[in-house]
Each structure stands twice: as structure tokens, then as C-alpha cells.
Amino acid sequence: MTTLGIRGAFFDFVDDPWKHVGREQEAARFHADGLMVIEDGRIVDFGAYDNIAPRHRALEVTPIADRLILPGFIDGHIHFPQTRVVGAFGEQLLSWLQVWVFPEELKYKDRAYAADAARRFFDNLLAAGTTTCQAFTTSAAESAECLFDEAARRNMRLISGLTGIDRYVPADYANTPEEFYRESKRLIGRYHRQGRSLYAVTPRYALGSSRALLEACQRLKSEHPDCWVNTHISETRDEIAAVQVEFTDCADYLGVYEKYGLVGPRFTGGHGIWLTEDEFGRFSRSGAAIVFCPCSNLFLGSGLFRIGRATDPRSRVRLAWGSDVGAGNRFSLLGALDEGYKIGMCNNAAVTDAAEAERNKISPYRGFWSITLGGAEALYLDEWVGNFEPGKEADFVALDWTAGPSALAWRQSLVGDRPRTVEQAADLLFGLMMVSDDRSVDETWVMGKRLYKKGE
Ligand SMILES: [Zn+2]
Fold it and tell me: How far apart are CA 444 and CA 448, in angstroms?
């Protein structure tokens, strides 16, 4: 058994800050001098150093000084095979897929190409402080295998699955529904709940799916009800219009996934920018989640997600945040918080409901909850990750509030040499999300092992 202690300033969450309007700090937990005890990769004890240390006399303690230690970030929506096509110029969603994405993703039939990309993918995630992701692959099983294998090598938590598409895609890229079913089934047997891997039945999006492909997804989900389901929904208005033409028997976009029995707990739809009021209500009641991908929504010009609507307590929707690389132009979830904050503010240029306007404001509590415990709850991962409760897996990131642009110096001058209260820590975190970027990610740890150190 390997036991180690980490001593430093810890910041995590015990509740949803949107439930604590005006007193959001009650949802957070801060130990200016804390101790985390890790046994075989799992947290076994956590709290203020003076309380915890006497219980572990012979403990070997690693200090992480002058950093804010947060749970590893959770990216709820990312495309592994777009690692090399980030920042492609000049198209919106449907033409961007045809011009840039499908030609690149087609290369992932080549196992060596896919394996090399998987290494780059996780290197990028770790450098951004992200320790868990839900990822799309391609229509080729090689891409899913390379991704799961590389995650297992690093012992990282991953939700993924073969990504099915058979319409509006080059013929040499398309799955047949039969092959998609057979290969998904094989991959579920090989990877689902093996180590830290979880399998998601993954129809790419409704417009790219024939009825036979959606029936294959339905069969997979009914035969493996504890698998996840991951897809896209209501990203752009021309996409929604096309879905309505294809699926005249469904009242709306969410109705397509409902018709095939996919919507419920462990279902996630990326984006949801243009959801109707009725769809928001059905998301809320079903326990399904939306993933908000601010960088992507702005990069492709898809629209402004109504975060204040999704967080309405009368019909709250489970909400994770995602980078959506490569439509998102950076891996960093600090970058997503930056752009998400601005989307909330843009919404408030038009919102007249004062309560919704308040909910559109992404405070540091709301932001960092969203990419840690909130993301874990949305994706049904909170039994394993999301905060520092004993029993959870020891994934964490050490953020350096002195690194990055000089503009951060102003926030430090408000706080002093180090944060002593939860409010001071949150103040620094707001500086990190609005002014800084990956430069502030100093170390990233996975299952009690340091896998990334800046500059090494
Ligand atoms: Zn996406």
C-alpha cells in the first residue's frame, strides 16, 4: 500500500453555488493550510492540517506551497480526433465539419496516427489541468481503442465510445448500423468499467444518424443500461431546421433521442443553445445533462447558451462544461470559464428577468464548481471524482496565482502574499479564469501521482 500526504491550500465544493444566491461561499470549502491523505490513489482523509496530521503520525508529506489546489477539471464534451485541427478558419458548424473535420478524422483508421494523437490529446488535457473527460472518437474502432488504451496507461478517468454516423458524411467515413452495433458491443465488453474507463453509446448527432443507426443505439443502451450516452443537440439553427425535415414524426430535436429511448440519467447532449422551453423542462425531469461549450459556441458562431435558464431552480438542468476541441479553440477549461462569463454577460444585454440575469453571472464559485463537482454530478461521476471527499479518487490540479500575465498582480495585491479566507481564494480564482490561462496550471495529479509539472 502506498500512502502519501499533500499539504497546501485546498479549494473545493460541497454544494451547487447557484443554490446559494448571495452567499455562494457556503457551497465552497477552503483550507488555507490543509492536508490530504492518499492511499493507493484514493483520498482517505482530508481537512485542516492541524486536525488531520495528528491522525497520521508517520505520514510522508509532500508540500505544495503557494498554490491553490483544486479537484482536477472535468471536460464534459471534447473530440479526441480533432486534436490536430484546432482553430480551423472560416466556417460554421455544418460546413466546418465537411471542409475541415471529416477529412482529418478519416485518418484515424490508421492506428499509428490515432495512437500518436491520443498521446498528444492527454498531454494537452493534463497541461490544462483536466483529469477527466467525455470524448468523441471517430467512426473507426481504432480511434476508440487508442484513446481507451492511452487513458488506461495514464490511469485517467474517461467516458468515450465509438462515434456513429451514417448520413451527410463522406461514404468512406460512414458506419453501417450493423457494424456500429457489433463494434460498439465489442468495445463495451473490452473497456466499460475496466479500470477508470466508462463506455458511452455515441451517435454523433441526430442529423448524421439514420433511423437504423439510432435503433442500434437504442438496442445497445437497452442491453447495457449502465452505459453512458453522449451526443450533440441544438447547436445551430440550420442544423435544427434540417433535423425537423428529417424527423417529421418528432416534435423537436430532443424528441428524436427520446423516441429511441436514449434520454435519461447518464445521457448528455452537447450545446443545447437553441432548446425550447419545453425541451429544457424535459431535460430537467429526465435527469439528462447538457454540456455548455463556450469557446466552441463563439468560435463557430453558433449562439449564446442560456446559462441563466438552465440554472433556473424551478426546472434546473444538470450542466457540465466542455472545451469541445477542435470547434473549441483551446483545451483549457479556464479559457471556457473566461468565454462562458462573457456569454452570460452578452445574454444580460437582452434578458429582462432579473433573476435570470443574476444567474447568468459566472462568479468564480459557479465557474469552478461547474468544471469540478458540478461536472461530476452532471455526468454521474460524483461517486469517484469532483471534490476531496474521502473515498474519491485523488485527481487534482495545483494553480499558481503568481504565474501568467502581469494583470494578475492587481488581484494579488488585494489578497496579500497568500489567500487566508474562502473569499480571498475565490478572488484569486476569478483572476485566474478571466486574466490567465494554462500558464497558471503548475501541476496536475491523477490518482495520487503527479503526471504534469509545468516546464518539465
Ligand atoms: Zn462537439
Answer: 10
C-alpha 236 – ligand 1 centre gap (Å): 12
- The set of cell numbers assigned to 357 is 440575469
- Residue 408's pLDDT is 76
Pairing label, strands 3-13, 61-71? parallel
Distance 430 CA to ligand 1 centre (A): 27
pLDDT at 403: 82
pLDDT at 2: 87
Q: How many CA atoms lie within 13 A of 349 on its CB side?
A: 5
Q: Indicate if the alpha-carbon torsion angle 281, 264, 203, 82 is positive or negative.
A: positive
Judge if 65 and 80 occupy the same domain: no
Alpha-helix runs per DSSP H in 307-379: 307-310, 333-347, 354-359, 364-370, 373-378
Residues 404 and 267 placed together within one structural domain of the fold: no
Distance 133 CA to ligand 1 centre (A): 13
Query: 112 CA to middle of ligand 1, Å?
Result: 24
Domain count, the chain: 2
The pLDDT score that the predictor gives to residue 8 is 98
Beta strand extents in 243-395 (DSSP E only): 267-271, 289-292, 318-321
Residue 57's Cβ-side half-sphere holds a number of Cα atoms within 13 Å equal to: 0
Tell me the CA–centroid distance for residue 315 and ligand 1, in Å: 25
Residue ranges making up the domain that contains 397: 3-72+387-453
CA of 248 to the centre of ligand 1 (A): 24
Per-residue pLDDT tens over the stretch 118-148: 999 999 999 999 999 999 999 999 999 999 9
What is the longest distance spanned by two Cα atoms in the chain?
68
Q: Are 272 and 354 members of one domain?
A: yes
How far is the centre of ligand 1, averaged over its atoms, from the C-alpha of 82 (Å)?
10
Query: Which helix (DSSP H) or strand (DSSP E) does residue 33 occupy?
Result: strand 28-39
pTM over the 0.70 mark: yes
CB 368, CB 313: distance < 8 Å? no
Q: Compute, in angstroms, the gap from residue 270 CA to the centroid of ligand 1.
A: 6
CATH number of the domain at 440, please. 2.30.40.10
Are 49 and 88 part of one and the same domain?
no
- 361 C-alpha vs ligand 1 centroid, how far in Å? 24
Phi, psi of 405 (to 5 degrees): -65, 155
**419: its cell numbers:** 489567500
Q: What are phi and psi of 74, to 5 degrees?
A: -120, 115
Percent helix, percent strand, percent coil in the chain, to nearest 5: 45, 25, 35
pLDDT at residue 128, as a whole number: 98
Spell out, as residue ranges, where the chain has pLDDT lower than 50. Answer: none
